[in-house]
Amino acid sequence: MDNRNDLVLAAQTGDRVAISRLLTVCQADVRRYARKQCEASDVDDAVQESLLVICRKVRGLKAAAAFSSWLFTVVKRECRKLSRRMFKYQPLPEELAEERLLYKPQDDLRIDLAAALESLPAHYLEVILLRDFEELTIAEIATRLGEQAGAVKSRLHRARELVREYMLDSE
After folding, report:
1. Can you tell me the distance from the alpha carbon of 146 to that of 32, in angstroms, rounded to the nearest whole number?
2. 3-state SS track over the chain
3. Rg (Cα) of the chain, in Å, rounded?
4. Do 8 and 61 touch, CB atoms closer than 8 A?
5. What CATH topology corresponds to 4-87?
6. pLDDT tens per residue across span 40-78
7. Considering the entire predicted model, what is its pTM?
8. What percent of the chain stands above pLDDT 90?
9. CA distances (Å), 64 to each of 105, 118, 138, 158, in order?
10. At residue 1, does pLDDT exceed 50?
11. Is residue 76 a contact partner of residue 37, using CB atoms and an 8 Å limit?
């Protein structure tokens, strides 16, 4: 295997050697991301949980080129789970979440939104751009992507949730 994309493609076919090598190759990135996203005491747990998720779900990844952004998303999600357990985190009520964003300076909102969009895996970014920037309907997006409208709605909802989480976490 000469590069990570080849390794991801082989791992997606269920090749156990490729999965093992992929986990070994990406472990340093996982640890680096976890150090940035987690409390210091949670880094090892986040790395272990993230590698397990990668092992179990790499087959479902639609594009090998999206692996790096997906990897970061997995690590970030695992760090949040650990943090919520630690602090018995309760999600923000809608009104409070909106209020926090309402009083943020507009320039800061623009910067945070751009960063949030950049953090999205490609398949989520695509539906947000088509819907919210090109203003296509769900049916038009489904046709363009060759997918069912329900799948597009689901992906759009998840993409917006990820952007919202990012925006609220950037405070």
Report:
1. 37
2. CCCHHHHHHHHHCCCHHHHHHHHHHHHHHHHHHHHHHCCHHHHHHHHHHHHHHHHHHHHHCCCHHHHHHHHHHHHHHHHHHHHHHHHCCCCCCHHHHHHHHHCCCHHHHHHHHHHHHHHCCHHHHHHHHHHHHCCCCHHHHHHHHCCCHHHHHHHHHHHHHHHHHHHHHCC
3. 18
4. yes
5. Rna Polymerase Sigma Factor; Chain: A (1.10.1740)
6. 778 888 899 999 989 888 888 888 788 888 888 889 888
7. 0.50
8. 23
9. 37, 18, 26, 20
10. no
11. yes
Task: Map tokens 């999965």 to a residue.
Answer: 19
Q: Name the CATH architecture for the domain at 94-169.
A: Orthogonal Bundle (1.10)
Q: What residue type is 19 in one-letter code? A: I
User: Using CA atoms, how far apart are residues 143 and 149, in angstroms rounded to an integer?
Assistant: 8
- pLDDT (tens digit per residue) in 13-45: 888 999 999 999 999 999 998 888 888 778 888
Across residues 97-106, what is the average pLDDT? 70
Please return the burial class of 121, using the count of CB atoms within 10 Å of its CB with bins 0-12, 13-18 and 19+.
Answer: buried
For the CA atoms of 78, 81, 83, 84, the dihedral, rounded to the nearest 10 degrees, stands at 170
Residue 82 amino acid letter: L
